[in-house]
Task: structure prediction
Amino acid sequence: KLTSLALQPAITPELVQGRVHLKCSYSPPPPEPPVQFRVLWSRLSSPGKREQIHQETTPQPFSYVEMDGANLRLGDTVFCTVTAFRRDTPEQQSLPEDSKGFYAGIKFLPESLEIAEDGKEHVLTVLSTVPIACPGQGDSCKITLQLSTEDLGSQVPGPPDIALSACQVDLLPAPCLGSSCAAATVTVTAVTDFAQDGNRVSRISAQPAAPWDVLWRAYTPRDVKVTVQDLPTGNCYSFTDPHIITFDGWRYNSHKIGTFLLCRSESRAFEVHVRQWDCGGHRSAAACNCGVAAR
Result:
């Protein structure tokens, strides 16, 4: 009997005549005597359960199945299972060998983020594991993903704790390398919200924007969960005839008349100016805050 032949089936994406296909390739055993392969394609229908979508018998060391948007859709995790047998003794079969699951659709890397309210930017890569196909579209071939953020049920409801560098990204056709056939990046930053609101969880969602391709039309990629660590915020003060307390707790008085720079960030466009006018009269030299401008 044929036993395990180490066929090592693997799934790769491929464009065939402008349409998205998945290809199952396997290492054939020595050609003598002639060998046939039975290839069973399946997809994950629910956790731990697979649903058969296609089966064929072929002498070739590969098998194709089309992503047609009906039997096989974006968002599916797909497997191919290969069994070998000799033409003259079809009842003697090798042990069936499974490929790894291939997720067809949009992936975010990393799949989840843990960041802090420290102003740092974190790069999120958005990639498509299947080719971007645009027959007849010419130079305008792309899939546009609309990005949005949402707060996930924190104790203090409010706007999301994260900000993105862009509201949408374009995935442009490129040769498939590994599991990436098109990729773009966006940066994620935790919002410094000056509030002690605890660690909060937000999510980033992506939605294909008005895709003409039926394959993309009913597809919603998986969300990215972002946990934001709450950090205490620095405070500084200027009050009465101005007493100043700096971020690091240094205290002094400023009785000058005029407009002054109160604070400025060295890393971003943020500064506060203050205007002080005489409010002590003839008896004492004192100034009071009478105006503030913030950028």
